[in-house]
Amino acid sequence: MAEGADHDVRGLQIAVNHTARVGEGDGVADAIEQAEPVVERQARGARVEPLADADAEAYGAFMAERTDENVERIIAIPFELAEVAAEVAELAACVAAEGNPNVSGDAAAGADLAAAAASVGARLVRINASPGDERVEKARALAEKAAKAACGAEAANAKR
Question: Which end of the chain offers a freer environment for a tag, N or C, measured as fewer CB atoms within 10 Å?
């Protein structure tokens, strides 16, 4: 899990950085700022970076000692990954639809990366959570939301 999740977190970081870069100076700034404040975008990026290290550390601790605390960490971190990834996918879809048509494909690619990360996060939550844990359904819904955003980004890109 640690290596796979680490790659997906790194992919999500690429999507965050790419979506933010695509949105700069190309006429989409107003659309993005209406969708969310700059501070929130920066906070999202700051949330993504430490997730890979936290996930690897949590998995290592879990493999060394399967305590309730360690189990909780290997569920909570992928859940947070799914949350952030769904947010990034929606932002990337906004950029694909409302931004400069010359970078719409790049934004759609960012949405695809974010949707993949959300899917992996949801899968890891499902694998590691106990039956009845409400995070399983919430993570599944986040992954579905991200996938729909990525499809919307692709549709917007195809129209441009």
Answer: C
Task: Look at domain 2-159 and name its CATH class.
Answer: mainly alpha
Taking the alpha carbons at both ends of the chain, their separation in whole angstroms is 38
* pLDDT tens digits for range 71-83: 999 999 999 999 9
Which tens digits make up the pLDDT trace of 1-44?
444 455 556 666 666 665 555 555 555 555 555 445 444 555 56
Q: Give the ranges where 23-159 is alpha helix by DSSP (H).
A: 29-35, 38-64, 68-98, 104-128, 134-159
57 exposure class (CB count in 10 Å sphere: 0-12, 13-18, 19+): middle
pTM: predicted TM-score of the whole model, two decimal places: 0.78
